[in-house]
C-alpha cells in the first residue's frame, strides 16, 4: 500500500469514528425541520427566501410526529427530548448566522421572564418521584437553561424503569407555548385513525381545570415491523404547558428487545403523571413564547376543500370521517360496498409552472416529473390518471390548469391508505375523479 | 370546522415517517461538514428537512412517495451539502466554527482522534471539507460528488487530491498514529 493509500485508509477510519460519535436529538431535528418546511410552504416558495426572524417559537410538531410516526424517536436508542421544541435553534452570534432565512432563537416574551432554571438532574428526580416502586436508572436528561449559546430548550428526563416485570424506557418532557395557541391544542387531538395501524387506542379528554389530556396507546413503528409498544400521555394546559410522558415495553425506544407484554404504567397512571403539580416549577422556569402568526389564507383550508368537494360528489354520496390540513383534505365515502377514502391536494403551482415553462426550475422540474405523460384538455389543463397502491389500491387524477391551479384527487379501495382493501375499485370512477379535479370551482387564490 | 380539525395533520405525519429514519445520518454528516459545530449542524439538518418538506408537498403526496424524490436519503444529502455550501458563501471568510466535540463513552484515543480530525477539517475551506465528507464519509463516487456540488468530475478530482494533501499537512503523522488499531 502506498503512503497515499494508507492515508486515505486512515482517513476513512478516522472520519467514520468521528462521524459516528455524533448523536442526534432526532425529535428536535425533525420537528424543527417540519416547522421550517411548513413555513416555507406557507410562503409559497420552494426557493430560499431570505426573511427576518418570525415570531414563531416553540412549536407544536411533537404531537404531529407522535401521531404520524408513532412517537418521537431518537437515534440509535439515544435519549431524545420527548416534547419537541426548537432546542437546537439557530447558532447564536458566536458562530455567525448561517442563513438569513433560518429561524432564530425562540422569541421570548419580555413580560414573562422565566423563573429559576430547572436542571436535568431535577427533571430526573421529578420523574423518579412520580413512578411506582421499582428500580430506576437515569438514561439522560436536560435542564431548562439551554447550554452554551443554545436557547432554553425543552427539559426532559429519560429513565429505564423496572417494576420487577421487565425493564422499560420512560421519558418525560415539558415545554411551553403561548396559552391557547392552536398548535398547542393540536397536540392533544387524537391522530387521524384512517392513518393509524390497527390496535391504536386514543382518548382526548377535557379536564375540569380547562386543560386537555390525551392518552395514546400505540406502537413505536407505525408499520409494526417490530411490535414495540409506545404509550404516552400528553397534557396541554391553559397556561400553555405541554407535558408529555412516553413509555415502551423495552429498555430503549428502538433497537432493544421487547422485555414485557406492555409498558409498565397504565393509561390512568400516565395521566396522573402528566397532570401532577410537581411540573409547575418546570413550566414556570420556561419562557412563554408569543403566539404563532396565523396562516396567510392563500391556501385552501381543509374545510374549504371539503365544502367544495361535497358539492361535486355523485348524487347519494356524502363525506364522513373528514380530516386534513391547509391544502389537503380527506374523507371517507361509503356507497354500501365498503369504505373508500378520498383525499385531495389543492395547491398553487403557478410558480412551478412558470419555472417549467422558462426552464429555470432549480430543485427539479416538478411539473415535468408529474405531468410529462399528461393528456391536455381543450382548455389547456393537463391531466394524469394513475393506479397505484399503498396497502390499499388508490386511483388518482392529477390536474394542472394553465394558471397553475393544481388539484389531485385520489380514492382508495379501503377506509384508509394503511388498511387492507375491502373492495375491488374505489367509490369514484376515473371520470368522476377527473370531474372533481378539473372543476372550475377551484380558483387560484391571489 | 366540518370536523377536519378533529384529525391531526396526517400528511405531515407521513412526511416525518419518511424522513425520521434519516435524520440521524444527516446530522452526523452535518457535524462533519461543520467540523464539529453541533449547533450549526442541527440548523443545517433542520433547514434541509424544511426544504425536503416543500419538495415533498409540491411534488406528490401519495403514500409518502414523491415523483421528484426517488431516493430520499441520497437526495436529502445532496440538498444538505448544497445548502451548506450556499450558507458558507454568505459567511464571513474569517469565521471558523468552534469545535463542539461529543464525548461518548469510548477510548480516550478515539476522543483525541475526533478532536484532531475535526480541528483539521475546520481549518479547511468549506468546499474542500464537502468533497472529503462526500468521498470518504458518504462513500460517493467522483461523479456523484461532482453532481452534488454542481461541479465537473475533473474539478472534483483536483479538489479532492488537493484537499487530501492539505489535510495531510495539517495532520502530519497524527492520523496514522491515532488510527493505529
TrEMBL record, chain A:
<keyword id="KW-1133">Transmembrane helix</keyword>
<feature type="compositionally biased region" description="Low complexity">
    <location>
        <begin position="83"/>
        <end position="108"/>
    </location>
</feature>
<protein>
    <recommendedName>
        <fullName>LigA protein</fullName>
    </recommendedName>
</protein>
<keyword id="KW-0812">Transmembrane</keyword>
<keyword id="KW-0472">Membrane</keyword>
<feature type="region of interest" description="Disordered">
    <location>
        <begin position="77"/>
        <end position="108"/>
    </location>
</feature>
<feature type="transmembrane region" description="Helical">
    <location>
        <begin position="45"/>
        <end position="68"/>
    </location>
</feature>
UniProtKB/TrEMBL annotation, chain B:
<dbReference type="InterPro" id="IPR013324">
    <property type="entry name" value="RNA_pol_sigma_r3/r4-like"/>
</dbReference>
<dbReference type="InterPro" id="IPR036388">
    <property type="entry name" value="WH-like_DNA-bd_sf"/>
</dbReference>
<feature type="domain" description="RNA polymerase sigma-70 region 4">
    <location>
        <begin position="120"/>
        <end position="168"/>
    </location>
</feature>
<feature type="region of interest" description="Disordered">
    <location>
        <begin position="87"/>
        <end position="110"/>
    </location>
</feature>
<keyword id="KW-0805">Transcription regulation</keyword>
<dbReference type="GO" id="GO:0006352">
    <property type="term" value="P:DNA-templated transcription initiation"/>
</dbReference>
<dbReference type="InterPro" id="IPR039425">
    <property type="entry name" value="RNA_pol_sigma-70-like"/>
</dbReference>
<dbReference type="InterPro" id="IPR013325">
    <property type="entry name" value="RNA_pol_sigma_r2"/>
</dbReference>
<keyword id="KW-0804">Transcription</keyword>
<dbReference type="GO" id="GO:0016987">
    <property type="term" value="F:sigma factor activity"/>
</dbReference>
<keyword id="KW-0238">DNA-binding</keyword>
<dbReference type="GO" id="GO:0003677">
    <property type="term" value="F:DNA binding"/>
</dbReference>
<comment type="similarity">
    <text>Belongs to the sigma-70 factor family. ECF subfamily.</text>
</comment>
<keyword id="KW-0731">Sigma factor</keyword>
<dbReference type="Pfam" id="PF04545">
    <property type="entry name" value="Sigma70_r4"/>
</dbReference>
<dbReference type="InterPro" id="IPR014325">
    <property type="entry name" value="RNA_pol_sigma-E_actinobac"/>
</dbReference>
<dbReference type="InterPro" id="IPR014284">
    <property type="entry name" value="RNA_pol_sigma-70_dom"/>
</dbReference>
<protein>
    <submittedName>
        <fullName>RNA polymerase sigma24 factor</fullName>
    </submittedName>
</protein>
<dbReference type="InterPro" id="IPR007630">
    <property type="entry name" value="RNA_pol_sigma70_r4"/>
</dbReference>
Amino acid at each position: 500500500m502506498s503512503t497515499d493509500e494508507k492515508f486515505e485508509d486512515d482517513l476513512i477510519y478516522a472520519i467514520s469514528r468521528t462521524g459516528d460519535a455524533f448523536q442526534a436529538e432526532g425529535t428536535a431535528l425533525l420537528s424543527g425541520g417540519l416547522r421550517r418546511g411548513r413555513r416555507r410552504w406557507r410562503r409559497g416558495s420552494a426557493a430560499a427566501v431570505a426573511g427576518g426572524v418570525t415570531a414563531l417559537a416553540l412549536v407544536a410538531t411533537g404531537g404531529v410526529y407522535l401521531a404520524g410516526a408513532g412517537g418521537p424517536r431518537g437515534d440509535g436508542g439515544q435519549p431524545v427530548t420527548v416534547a419537541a421544541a426548537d432546542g437546537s435553534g439557530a447558532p447564536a452570534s458566536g458562530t455567525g448566522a448561517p442563513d438569513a432565512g433560518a429561524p432564530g432563537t425562540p422569541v421570548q416574551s419580555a413580560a414573562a421572564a422565566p423563573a429559576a432554571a430547572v436542571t436535568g438532574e431535577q427533571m430526573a428526580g421529578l420523574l423518579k418521584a412520580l413512578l411506582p416502586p421499582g428500580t430506576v436508572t437515569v438514561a439522560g436528561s436536560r435542564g431548562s437553561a439551554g447550554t452554551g449559546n443554545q436557547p432554553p430548550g425543552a427539559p426532559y428526563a429519560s429513565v429505564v424503569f423496572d417494576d420487577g416485570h421487565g425493564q422499560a424506557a420512560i421519558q418525560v418532557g415539558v415545554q411551553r407555548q403561548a396559552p391557547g395557541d392552536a398548535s398547542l391544542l393540536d397536540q392533544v387531538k387524537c391522530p387521524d385513525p384512517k392513518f393509524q395501524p390497527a390496535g391504536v387506542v386514543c382518548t382526548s379528554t377535557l379536564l375540569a381545570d380547562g386543560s386537555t389530556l390525551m392518552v395514546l396507546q400505540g406502537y413505536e413503528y407505525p408499520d409494526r415491523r417490530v411490535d414495540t409498544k409506545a404509550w404516552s400521555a400528553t397534557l396541554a394546559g391553559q397556561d400553555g404547558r405541554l407535558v408529555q410522558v412516553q413509555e415502551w415495553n423495552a429498555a430503549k425506544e428502538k433497537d432493544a428487545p421487547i422485555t414485557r407484554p406492555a409498558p409498565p404504567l397504565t393509561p390512568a397512571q400516565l395521566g396522573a403523571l402528566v397532570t401532577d403539580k410537581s411540573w409547575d416549577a418546570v413550566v414556570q422556569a420556561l419562557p412563554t413564547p408569543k403566539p404563532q402568526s396565523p396562516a396567510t389564507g392563500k391556501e385552501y383550508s381543509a374545510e374549504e376543500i371539503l365544502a367544495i368537494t361535497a358539492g361535486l360528489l355523485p348524487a347519494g354520496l356524502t363525506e364522513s370521517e373528514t380530516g386534513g390540513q391547509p391544502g389537503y383534505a380527506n374523507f371517507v365515502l361509503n356507497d354500501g360496498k365498503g369504505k373508500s377514502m378520498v383525499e385531495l391536494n389543492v395547491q398553487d403551482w403557478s410558480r412551478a409552472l412558470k419555472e417549467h415553462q422558462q426552464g429555470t426550475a432549480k430543485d427539479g422540474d416538478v411539473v415535468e416529473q408529474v405531468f410529462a405523460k399528461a393528456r391536455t384538455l381543450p382548455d389547456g389543463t393537463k391531466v394524469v390518471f394513475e393506479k397505484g397502491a399503498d396497502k390499499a389500491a388508490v386511483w388518482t387524477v392529477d390536474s394542472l390548469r394553465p394558471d397553475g391551479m393544481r388539484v389531485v384527487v385520489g380514492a382508495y379501495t379501503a377506509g384508509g391508505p394503511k388498511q387492507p382493501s375491502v373492495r375491488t375499485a374505489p367509490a369514484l370512477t376515473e371520470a368522476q375523479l377527473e370531474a372533481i379535479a378539473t372543476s372550475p370551482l377551484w380558483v387560484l387564490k391571489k | 370546522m366540518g370536523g377536519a380539525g378533529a384529525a391531526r395533520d396526517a400528511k405531515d405525519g407521513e412526511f416525518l415517517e419518511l424522513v425520521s429514519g434519516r435524520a440521524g445520518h444527516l446530522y452526523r454528516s452535518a457535524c462533519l461538514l461543520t467540523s464539529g459545530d453541533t449547533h450549526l449542524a442541527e440548523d443545517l439538518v433542520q433547514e434541509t428537512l424544511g426544504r425536503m418538506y416543500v419538495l415533498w408537498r409540491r411534488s406528490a403526496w401519495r403514500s409518502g412517495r414523491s415523483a421528484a424524490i426517488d431516493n430520499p436519503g441520497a437526495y436529502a444529502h445532496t440538498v444538505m451539502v448544497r445548502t451548506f455550501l450556499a450558507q458558507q458563501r454568505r459567511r464571513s471568510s474569517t469565521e471558523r466554527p468552534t469545535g463542539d466535540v461529543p464525548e461518548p463513552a469510548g477510548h480516550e484515543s478515539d476522543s483525541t482522534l475526533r478532536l484532531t480530525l475535526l480541528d483539521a477539517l475546520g481549518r479547511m475551506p468549506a468546499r474542500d471539507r464537502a468533497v472529503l465528507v462526500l468521498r470518504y464519509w458518504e462513500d460517493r463516487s467522483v461523479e456523484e460528488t461532482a453532481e452534488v456540488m454542481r461541479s465537473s468530475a475533473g474539478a472534483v478530482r483536483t479538489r479532492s487530491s488537493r484537499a487530501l494533501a492539505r489535510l495531510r499537512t495539517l495532520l502530519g503523522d497524527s492520523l496514522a498514529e491515532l488510527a493505529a488499531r
